[in-house]
Amino acid sequence: EARLQGRSVVSLKDWSPSEIKQVLMTAKWMKTNPKVAEIQYALKGKSVAMIFELPSTRTRVSFQVAIQALGAAPVILDWQDSQLGRGEPIEDTARVLSRYVDGMIVRAKSHQMVQALQKWATVPVFNALTDMAHPFQVLADALTIWEHVGYLSGAKMAYVGDGNNMANSYMIIGAKLGMHVNIACPEAWQPSADIIAYAQQEAEMTGGSIQVMTDPVQAVRGVDVVATDVFVSMGDVDSASKRQALAPYQVNAALMQHAKENAIFLHCLPAHRGEEVTEEVLEGPQSVVFDEAENRLHVQKSVLYHTLAEF
Ligand code: CP
Ligand code: NVA
After folding, report:
1. What domains are defined for the chain?
2. Where residue 1 falls among pLDDT bands split at 50, 70, 90?
3. Which of 233, 236, 238, 272 to mutate to test the pocket of ligand 2 (most atoms within 8 A of CB)?
4. What is the mean pLDDT of the chain?
5. Is ipTM strictly over 0.95?
6. Residue 37: pLDDT band by 50, 70, 90 thresholds?
7. Alpha-helical segments (H) within the chain
8. Binding residues
9. Which of 148, 180, 267, 296 is catalytic?
10. Of 93, 192, 194, 219, which has fewest CB within 10 angstroms of its CB?
């Protein structure tokens, strides 16, 4: 267990398959045993900063509740309200905050910003979403797949839509966990080539596979899990041409027909009904999006516990 102590989560690239599995197992245990003293006092006397450059509902609340549930105090910092909003360098902010708090959770427009924060901080840094990655979301999604499909290694999933932070993160966690991940995106909106290459290489070691394609029907055929995300992410330029390119990637009942009969539907939320997903699918019996949202809390408690508690 001690090997996770003091570690950051900027990208799940930095974590091994067994480390990810350990976090998921602890999350499952915490979900069923929320009141044990070992959890409630694990971070007693500690403080964790939460820095948000972009809006958030789930991440902000679930991290704050997770920190409190472990006995620590959250310190919430709005980007615009802090000196970061007036241009204080991240290098200085990282070193100053490291003198006060035991960990930092950050949601930022640019991935490089979070990498720089980690470089200069002397406490663990946790990525609460960047343009490149959303690691805690896909940890929650993995727990949800484990619960509903029953297993992770060998599970088949399709992500259909924009080749964004979620697509990148599904490829990485899927590869690490031996899953078969199909990604269907329009030609012009494919995930980043270096993350595809990284994930494919990683999948070779776990028996998983990563395939990137343009046909949503081909991607969804026979899978256990169908996932999508918004057409236009925070910080993206909203363009008619992008929406037009993504329109054929809507997850609707006709597309779900190609997946396994008992396939589950995932969406990190917030969802846009009638755009990337229909009301029928989002509110239908295959949708487990609120279990998925709940699982943010449990995986985040688990990661904070493993990285920040003193054993
Ligand atoms: N899924 C997710 O990260 O939601 P928020 O933007 O509300 O935090
Ligand atoms: N891809 C979305 C996810 C929101 C939780 C975004 O970056 O805005």
Report:
1. 2-133+296-308 (3.40.50.1370), 137-292 (3.40.50.1370)
2. very low
3. 233
4. 97
5. yes
6. confident
7. 17-32, 37-40, 58-69, 90-98, 111-120, 135-149, 165-176, 193-206, 216-220, 240-246, 253-256, 279-282, 289-308
8. 56-59, 83, 107, 134-137, 165, 229, 233-234, 268-269, 296
9. 296
10. 194
